[in-house]
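Lecture notes, unit on protein representations.

Consider one protein chain, 275 amino acids long.
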Amino acid sequence: MRASLLQIAVDEGESVDSRRRRVASLVREQAGADLVVLPELWTTGAFAYQEFAREAEPLEGPTHEAMAKAASDAGVWLHAGSIPERGESDGVPAAGEGPLYNTSLVFSPSGDLVAAYRKIHRFGFDKGEAVLMGAGDELVTVRMPGVTTLGLATCYDLRFPELFRGLVDAGAETFVIPAGWPERRRSHWTLLAQARAVENQAFVLACGTAGTHAGVPQAGHSIVVDPWGTVLAEAGRGEEVLHVELDDGKVAQTREQFPALKDRVLGLATPLHRR
């Protein structure tokens, strides 16, 4: 599988519409790849909290339209990163009224929306995304026929291994993780990406942003890790397109030769408290 990770720089001086057009053009340039991946909240910036409601859009809004066309033009599977989604209110799309979600979109090479994943773990504790956006409640996988099954996660999700175990149980072989990860915790980004790959014997494609979001410098360093934990490719801090070739049989081979997943012990009882 040939994959391209587009580490987009979010410049506050560039309008969302302009960036959307620019990113669509970059996606079209990836014709020949099998899978293209974009970062988290690249339309607004992951830390530009004040922009979430202003730039929120329905699932089939302008970003959907632009990315569907770009995926179709390039003939690629496209994980279009995530957008601030304006959900429905009482079952009806509500301009400016429905709940917000951090939602990832995945398109087929024909431009069809095949999956949407609402981020489960929202970052910010008692502020920012954690209070401005609703939480997703569904694990999402996408089958690329004859290639791999993708498991979807977003940024802060990377810190919660149980989510990835659930994706493995659902058949995931390749984790795709768009992010807006800050520079000050970059060492965690690399460590956790490798840990999720090793413990689940899966590929990890983690695509971050470049630039500075609302005064928060971004880590960049998008990374691709194989099921043995080997880093196959890693970007720098600036805007960059990361190209990598993945061995389609590597996951099955690793799980067969070192069958650690078979030794999982589930349903352990709660320990008794002893004096």
